[in-house]
Design a protein that fits this description.
Blueprint lengths: L1 E10 L5 E4 L16 E12 L8 E9 L4 E10 L6 E8 L4 E7 L4 E11 L2 H44 L12 H12 L11
Antiparallel strand pairs: 1-8, 2-7, 3-6, 3-8, 4-5, 4-7
Protein name: Nucleoplasmin core domain-containing protein
Organism: Aphis gossypii
Subcellular location: Nucleus
Length: about 200
Amino acid sequence: MTEDYFWGVTLDKTKGTEVWDPDVKPDANDSTHVFRGEHTLLVKQAVLGPEVPDGEVNVIEVEAMGYKSDIKFPVVVLKGGSGHSQCVLDLLFPDPPVTFKLVKGNGPIHLLGNHSVGIAGEGMADEEDDDEIDEEFEEEEEEVIEEEKNSVEEKKRKIAANSNSKGGKAAKRPKIDSEVRNFIFMLICLNFIKFPINII
């Protein structure tokens, strides 16, 4: 299970760099950081502040962990007074730390998104619960199979008992007169009526 939180940061000329790293050891007196787990950050939007002068270009660069090494790229470019004071993003950062840096312009630029926390140790509990459920399911399955076997054996016994009570002979089909048989055969051949072959 994850818990999602609204996340935001403002970058401007006084605070040009922000590091998102929830794994940094929290203050011992801070009770809000009791649970640790898997953290992910999803940046959804960048908004340029209204006080940005017309024509000023603002660029935000992100440095994060890549597949083989850290990567550093610009992710937001907004120009003051251009009518495009915001942009939609879809940047997922599954591993902290992530560094956001205002590399051009004075800002402010506001980054908004979601910080998700997967509760630590929960995966182990889920696996144990899954194992217990699997074991219960297998036991129930075995019981059903055993009941079906018993049912089939009971039916076999009843059939055997019925055939023994009739002198051990199988039930016979009623005899059809040869003229009636020939007539039915002729109708089938002429395709007037369709009967299963075993009637004849």
